[in-house]
Amino acid sequence: MPPTRFLRRFLRRRPPSAGRYPRAFGAAVVVGLSALTAASTQAQDVYFSQPYATRLHLNPAFTGLFDDASIALAYRNQYPTLIGSLQTSQLAADYRLRDQRSAVGLLVNADRGGGLNLTRLEAGFTYAYHARLSQDLYVSGGAHAAYGSQRISYGNLLFGDQIDDNGQPTGTSAEPLVYDPVRYLTLGLGGLFYTPNTWGGLAIHHVNQPQVGVASDAVLPFRLAVHGGYKHYFVKTTVKREYREVSLAPTGSYTYQGGSQRLELGVYGTNSPLTAGLLWRGALPGPGNAQQTLVALLGLTWSGFRFGYSYDVSLSRFSRETGGAHEITLALTKFDLIEAAKRRLRRKNYTAPPCPTF
User: Fold this and answer.
1) Is 32 helix (H, G, I), strand (E, B) or coil?
2) Residue 135: partners with Cβ closer than 8 Å, 6 or more residues away
3) Helices marked H in the chain — which ranges?
4) Coil, helix or strand for 285?
5) I need a surface site. Which of 74, 147, 201, 221 has the fewest CB within 10 A?
């Protein structure tokens, strides 16, 4: 039985009587489950279903490429029917500097969930430098540095000394369950090439593989992300400062982290101001890699405002029982049309990548 399912069933059981289970029972379960999960898995990053709405998480080279300034919020609730569902919140912001060749960004991620109430908070900065190699070929290179903190809580577990003679929970436990948070520094690099119709990028996160647990092998493995796509425009016009687009964009990505490999194939259709997408995400063949997900998403862009919603429909039996995932993104952007015209005259205007945005 997978460790996640065992933990779910264990937490749903009624409290045992003190006569049947000794005081050390709770501690033994905690130690056993910790050893079991630590032996079979490593800490991993969350996979957002709207990668281009959370693009600083995907690749730091995206910093400052789309707007003069922007701020975005994202929320993801995965496995909502499971006790201890996995919830992720993200704040991202970027600002293009006056030289128009570089930009800085802020990225904050907060993860919480699981039977032991695992919490991870990462906050850091991104930087990107943009260049034009030829008339229709652009490049951007980026870097990311963040400080993180990770901890777990035993507050939702029940120990033998908390159960009275009638089998009812009472009081607090005397078990010494002290777990100080683990703090770490993580570094990442990324690059992006693009033309008016195509794009391709590569990013490596956690290149220093920081330690995030008390065990010597509890590290955050590096995450390799390769992504790209092509956009075909049926309509692309700007009339009276109103941009209109009708397009179709197939996309693809590959992610590797800690022995896990994921492939994602999708297609986005845009008819301004709406964007709709359908993505398939699945683990590549390998031991235990059977999870597959179908993602439906809808985005709206209007007057500096971007909104996106997506829902994950799992194609595997276990994940279907846990309720899929909901994801919401919201962004406010600023783009100065007058300054953009001046940049064109100074030949410092850099076309944004054609990848989907909403």
Assistant:
1) helix
2) none
3) 3-12, 24-40, 55-58, 317-321, 337-345
4) coil
5) 147
- Using only C-alpha atoms, what is the Rg of the chain? 23
Q: What is the CATH number of the domain that holds 133?
A: 2.40.160.40
Q: Which residues contact 12 (CB under 8 A, 6 or more apart)?
A: 83
The distance from CA 93 to its chain's CA centroid, rounded to whole angstroms, is 15
What's the whole-number mean pLDDT along residues 197-214? 92
Residue 156: band (very low, low, confident or very high) from pLDDT cuts 50, 70, 90: low
Instruction: Please give the structure tokens belonging to residue 84.
Output: 């201890």
Residue 209 phi/psi, 5° resolution? 45, 70
Q: Is residue 50 part of a domain?
A: no
Residue 249 belongs to domain spanning: 55-165+175-344
* H helix and E strand count, the chain: 5, 15
Top pLDDT among 223 and 240 is at 223
Residue 198 makes CB contacts below 8 A (sequence gap 6+) with 228, 229, 230, 231, 354
Q: How do beta strands 69-78 and 223-230 pair?
A: unpaired
> pLDDT tens digit string along 157-180?
666 666 766 767 776 666 666 567
Per residue, the 3-state secondary structure of 177-244, as one string, reads CCCCCEEEEEEEEEEEEECCCEEEEEEEECCCCCECCCCCCCECCCEEEEEEEECEEEEEEEECCEEE
For residue 49, being part of any structural domain is answered with no
Residue 35 included in any domain: no
- Least-confidence region, from 120-129, 172-181, 239-248, 273-282: 172-181
In a domain, 357, yes or no: no
Copy the structure tokens of residue 334: 């600023």
What is the pLDDT at residue 347? 54
Beta bridge partners of 244: 237
| Residues facing 287 on adjacent strands | none
Split into its structural domains, the chain has a count of 1
pLDDT in tens, 339-353: 555 555 555 556 889
Distance separating alpha carbons of residues 195 and 138, to the nearest angstrom: 6
